Amino acid sequence: MLTAENTKKWMDSFYRKIEENKDYLSELDTPIGDGDHGNNMMRGMDGVKNSLAQLQDPDLKTVLKAIAMGLISKVGGASGPLYGTAFLEMAKKCSETQKVNELLSVALAGIKKRGGATEGDKTMVDVWSPVAQSNAITPKIIDDAIASTKDMQARKGRASYLGERSIGHLDPGAVSSGYLFTALLETEGTL
Amino acid sequence: MKKIINEPQHVVSEMVDGLVRSYPQYLEKIPDTEAMVRSDKDSMTGKVGIVSGGGSGHEPSHAGFVGKGMLSAAVAGQVFTSPTPDQIYAAIKAADHGKGVFLVIKNYSGDVMNFDMAKDLAELDDIKVKSIIVDDDIAVENSLYTQGRRGVAGTVLMHKLVGAAADQGATLEEIEQLAQSALANIKTIAVALSAATVPEVGKPGFTLADDEIEYGVGIHSEPGYRREKIKTSKKLVTELLEKIEKNQPLKSDHQYAVLVNGMGATPLMEQYIFSHDLLDQLEDRQIKPVFMKVGNYMTSIEMAGVSLTIFDLVDNKWLEYLNYPVETIAW
Q: Number of H helices and number of E strands within chain A?
């Protein structure tokens, strides 16, 4: 169950994971993208941190919306609108339900609609989808989902221009999404 | 990495400040953004606004084409990264003078999504917005399993056409129609000799051996369709021209506009040599371009190489638009 408090903690934890793995994410992005995913996500999480710090006693909807706007206005590229749309959809839904899997499902639908990607296209959807569909998120579900992108051929985004050459690399957006869900798992009281 | 910069993370904001301070007669910065709008506000009154933009690193695109007769505003994203919706939205607002705003977007997933979100925001404000997604790069053969063809140097010709039409008082619908019919006739293909280095990344996006080239590379170091040993300028022209011909037959009774575009690190000397060989090979086909530009228009930081754009001027009006006078930094 998400609350304003544990969602903020979730973001603190996600921030630290992005900070620790910024260079790794950019490295993953080099062979199949343009090598900036770590930098872009770091800029976005700085934006999220700043927006959240300005809120006084916010409710869950305000927190989720602030996260969305922080990401949308700072990340740029494809990841900004996709992550941003995910949190915006959760913000829209959270008055109805605070259950994580229900919120992740609407977020996933938003990502698919915004980017036009589906399962198997070697994108963040390949991590969001199995996680949103599981009733009990585990580290194994997350890790397996990330690993599954390695053998896929990219069909969306810049990696798609590589054709078969995109096979054999992890998708950077799938890996950063993995950090998001690992951070969620590690935040007490969210599940 | 060896670049004339300060902190890599400040590259874009410092570049934008440098641009607007150097050229106040053309550009001013929209406060709290990296978007720039035409300084000559009177020239936009009563006309459709034209907004373009994208990641930085393609200079003089896109701010270099802001000015009377061309773009109303341009948005500069991070290097090789689409600008964010709030910034694009600020540019749309600055470019709107009651007749609506037309967006020129290059076909990259990030650009398409961010401009789309900005369009949604503007429509909430009752600003009419229409757009064209430019996808002139013929290197991508199969768009079924990819993002589709990329938007590259042909985008500059699109800016010129829609900018001229807007300046002459065309409506938003007429501009959309013009953009769609012109797009189908603009084809571009590139060859790279070396890759670009994004400042925050610090190393080149790909590596080519000293004697290697790659055909079909995109403007963010996206891979092309073939690698081989470096060839003479004549042979490079033959390869690129034949590739274009496969997509768009070149006919002696048609009129063509040609853009030879440097990718950033290729000297004009080499671009002129390439152009000389190109004109020879077009002459072999009984074609003499009625309009030609040679130079750095849509670059890829310090990538070495050139792109060739051929625009089949099916409509006589298009040549008039290309020749229409503009007041910009870079056209």
A: 8, 0
Nearest to B245 by CA among B308, B198, B303: B308
Q: What is the mean pLDDT of residues B314-324?
A: 97
Asked whether A107 and A94 are in contact (CB, 8 A), the reply is no
Instruction: Write the CB contacts of A123 (distance below 8 Å, at least 6 apart in sequence).
Output: A115, A117, A149, A154, A156, A157, A171, A173, A174
Domain residue ranges in chain A: 4-186
The correct CATH number of A4-186 out of 1.25.40.340, 3.40.1280.10, 2.40.50.140, 3.40.50.720 is 1.25.40.340
Predicted ipTM of the assembly? 0.79
Count other Cβ atoms within 10 Å, centred on residue B172: 17
- pTM for this entry: 0.89
Bridge partners of residue B68, in order along the sequence? B327
Phi, psi angles (nearest 5°) of residue B68: -55, 130
- Residues A130, A158: contact at Cβ < 8 Å? no
Cis before B60 (ω within 30): yes
Residues A158 and A165: their CA atoms lie apart, in Å, by: 12
Predicted local distance difference test score (pLDDT) of residue B205: 85
CA distance B58 to B15: 12
> Which residues does residue B262 pair with via DSSP β-bridges, in sequence order?
B306
Catalytic residue selected from B58, B159, B254, B276 = B58
Find chain A residues with C-beta within 8 A of B147's C-beta.
156-158, 160-161
Q: What is the pLDDT of residues B13-46, one digit of tens each?
A: 999 999 999 999 999 999 999 999 999 999 999 9
Please report residues of B whose CB lies closer than 8 A to that of A160: 145-147
Q: How far is A38 from chain B (nearest CA, A)?
A: 10
Contact assignment for B145 to A153 by CB distance below 8 Å: yes
Q: Do A30 and B78 touch (CB under 8 A)?
A: no
Distance CA B154, CA B23 (A): 25
Is residue B220 annotated as a catalytic residue, yes or no?
yes
CB B291 within 8 A of CB B323: yes
